[in-house]
């Protein structure tokens, strides 16, 4: 047996919203981003789709600290995606934005609190440093012209909020009550989950499979793919039907993920409620390439490169 390289698997879990705030340094999927550096958070330009120009929506963030590097004691990677299906093009990553944020242990935002109660009471958030879009959590560079109380990252998100909530609330907001209206579900964000990672426990067996094992495996694959009368076919015929280079890779993929069928990589689109046979955003794998040395970027957000592998490419 030969051990595979170390691989971390991701799983989504329901979690109390409180524990997904910035001060808990979460890894999470969906909802609004839990910004690491709280000022300045990314500008609308940093988060705009490179194809349509609309604001991309928060997809996922992973807390990946480099405590052996002074400037990256805290470190988080953020991925954003445009929700316009037309911008999800084959072999293009222009509908995606990836940003790196990192901070030293002694920083401008987080103290040395040690208990959950301390963190809850301290609760640093980005909106204490600059206006934040009520719809998506990005930097709110625009405000409602009437009440001046609600901020938006773009005209598009202002229109959405006006139709769903703010048209009725605006007059009430003008009254100096000191209270804001509850935030409505604008139908823009993805469902929110905690992203839990675990080391993969998997060993690849290099021994040759027996003739009988090959027959069972090929038959099961073909039957799951489409209904065929194949029980009486010899192995040589099964291989001709099933084992193209395409299917060899796909069979290996199915075997590997079967050990942990709940891992996020194949099913994330389902959890996000965007897995559709019609027009929808889609990908096979998103691979983020970031600075190996975690070079110091201060309190800013630095754009990194993401490679999008499409589903059709990932099984060829």
TrEMBL record:
Region forming the signal peptide: none
Ranges where the MYND-type domain occurs: 133-170
The entry's keywords: Metal-binding, Zinc, Zinc-finger
InterPro entries: PDCD2_C, Znf_MYND
Keyword Zinc assigned: yes
GO molecular function (one): zinc ion binding
Entry annotated with the keyword ATP-binding: no
Protein name: MYND-type domain-containing protein
């Amino acid at each position: 047996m030969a051990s595979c390289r170390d691989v971390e698997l991701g799983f989504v879990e329901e979690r109390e919203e409180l524990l997904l705030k910035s001060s808990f340094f979460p890894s999470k999927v969906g909802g609004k981003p839990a910004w690491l550096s709280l000022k300045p958070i990314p500008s609308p330009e940093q988060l705009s789709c490179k194809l349509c120009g609309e604001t991309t929506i928060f997809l996922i963030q992973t807390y990946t600290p480099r405590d052996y590097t002074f400037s990256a004691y805290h470190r988080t990677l953020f991925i954003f995606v445009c929700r316009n299906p037309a911008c999800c093009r084959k072999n293009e990553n222009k509908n995606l934005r990836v940003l790196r944020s990192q901070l030293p242990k002694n920083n401008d935002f987080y103290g040395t609190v040690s208990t959950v109660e301390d963190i809850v009471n301290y609760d640093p958030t980005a909106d204490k440093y600059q206006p934040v879009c009520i719809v998506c959590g990005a930097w709110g560079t625009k405000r409602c012209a009437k009440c001046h109380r609600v901020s938006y990252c773009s005209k598009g998100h202002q229109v959405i909020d006006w139709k769903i909530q703010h048209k009725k609330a605006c007059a009430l907001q003008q009254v100096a009550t000191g209270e804001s209206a509850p935030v409505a579900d604008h139908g823009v964000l993805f469902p929110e989950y905690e992203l839990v990672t675990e080391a993969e426990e998997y060993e690849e067996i290099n021994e040759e499979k027996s003739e009988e094992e090959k027959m069972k495996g090929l038959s099961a694959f073909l039957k799951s793919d489409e209904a065929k009368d194949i029980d009486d076919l010899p192995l040589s015929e099964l291989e001709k039907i099933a084992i193209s280079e395409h299917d060899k890779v796909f069979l290996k993929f199915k075997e590997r993920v079967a050990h942990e069928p709940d891992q996020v990589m194949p099913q994330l689109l389902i959890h996000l409620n965007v897995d559709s046979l019609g027009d929808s955003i889609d990908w096979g794998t998103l691979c983020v390439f970031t600075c190996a040395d975690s070079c110091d970027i201060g309190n800013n957000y630095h754009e990194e490169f993401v490679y999008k592998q499409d589903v059709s490419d990932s099984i060829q």
